[in-house]
């Protein structure tokens, strides 16, 4: 019995090559559709005054009595959700402006304030909202960076929890 169907035998490297192309196609489709995941967490770095970082840590300590899994990243994500409620109709920035904060590391806060770099896990959707918000604030030519955005997050958390900065 002769088998007319000839199948190329797949070896390990062949599978590896096709896996990369499948991933690339999927990633391109997601970019085209402008759908940002709320599940995929990305590490987003901030350079912030110590007082802002301390506020987030104090809030986490307060919330741990209610929810043992509450983290600093949870607090930041919650603050972003509160900001989204205040700004529900924020428009998507143009495609050519992928990250509006990359141009410089300038700050509008005083030079005397001691700052530390820290990072939080944010969803793709939260990161996209942050960049859209920053882009909107920069449209008039003003200086608005992630540091100022984070200050707005803290203001929203202060309003909700009545825990004020020291």
Description:
The protein has a two-stranded antiparallel ribbon with strand order 1-2. It has 166 residues and is mainly α. 16% of the residues are buried. The termini are far apart. The chain has one domain. It is built from 5 helices and 2 strands.
Helix % is: 40-55%
* Distance separating the two termini: 85 Å
Give the ordered list of helices and strands: HEHHEHH
Q: Output the radius of gyration.
A: 22 Å
Biggest sheet statistics: 2 strands, antiparallel
Count of individual helical segments: 5
The parts where pLDDT drops under 50 for at least 5 residues are none
The domain tally reads 1
Strand order of the largest sheet: 1-2
> Approximately what portion of the residues adopt beta-strand conformation?
5-15%
Shape: globular
Average pLDDT metric:
80
The number of strands is: 2
Structural class call reads mainly alpha
Summarize the structure.
The chain has 166 residues and is mainly alpha-helical. It has helices spanning 12-33, 50-63, 72-86, 124-138, 146-161, and strands spanning 41-49, 115-123.
């Amino acid at each position: 019995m002769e088998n007319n169907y000839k199948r190329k035998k797949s070896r390990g490297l062949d599978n590896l090559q096709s896996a990369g192309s499948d991933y690339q196609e999927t990633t391109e489709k997601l970019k085209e559709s402008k759908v940002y995941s709320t599940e995929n967490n990305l590490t987003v770095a901030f350079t912030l005054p110590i007082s802002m970082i301390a506020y987030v840590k104090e809030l986490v300590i307060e919330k741990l009595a209610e929810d043992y899994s509450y983290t600093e990243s949870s607090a930041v994500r919650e603050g972003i959700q509160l900001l989204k409620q205040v700004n529900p109709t924020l428009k998507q920035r143009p495609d050519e402006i992928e990250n509006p904060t990359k141009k410089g590391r300038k700050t509008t806060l005083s030079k005397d304030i001691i700052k530390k770099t820290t990072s939080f896990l944010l969803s793709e959707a939260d990161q996209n909202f942050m960049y859209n918000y920053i882009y909107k604030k920069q449209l008039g030519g003003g200086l608005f960076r992630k540091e100022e955005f984070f200050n707005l997050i803290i203001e929203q958390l202060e309003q909700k929890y009545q825990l004020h900065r020291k």
